[in-house]
Write a structure and sequence with these properties.
Leucine-rich Repeat Variant, mainly alpha, globular
Length: 142
């Protein structure tokens, strides 16, 4: 089904309303994130973002495993991919205090890559993850 995607909105709707509810969602997020086809790759990272935001019972390690894939894909200059990579990173960083710290370290690592896309992803993610609103969220919980 993802092989025929040619639109970011249809991609995201499928991930949000169908794929994230399947038993193979985590496996497909990883598999698709490694693909080169633009909207298949986007589906992988969009699925990561949706899973991170919706599966409240899953342990942090389920989402921490996505960080190396995010670093790997951060140099992809295609707009729809880089935005989904950024989205997944920000969602992971807003999940828990431990993942917040790991996502910030990941963004700092991405920031050092020699890529315009990577620098944009890092800058945008850090802007949100280091914002007062996100910091206050963890201060109130801890």
């Amino acid at each position: 089904m993802v092989a025929g995607l040619d639109s970011w909105d249809v991609c995201d709707q499928l991930c949000m309303n169908l794929f994230r509810w399947t038993p193979f969602a985590r496996q497909k997020a990883v598999e698709w994130a490694r693909r080169e086809v633009e909207f298949v790759k986007r589906a992988g990272f969009a699925l990561m973002a949706f899973l991170t935001g919706s599966d409240k019972k899953a342990p942090d390690r389920d989402f921490a495993q996505y960080l190396p894939l995010i670093i790997e894909a951060a140099t992809d200059e295609r707009n729809f991919v880089k935005k989904a990579v950024n989205w997944a990173l920000r969602q992971i960083g807003k999940r828990s205090p431990a993942l917040h710290r790991r996502a910030i370290r990941c963004a700092r690592q991405i920031q050092k890559l020699d890529s315009k896309s990577a620098r944009w992803i890092a800058r945008d993610a850090l802007r949100e993850l280091e914002s007062e609103a996100v910091r206050d969220k963890w201060t109130k919980r801890v």
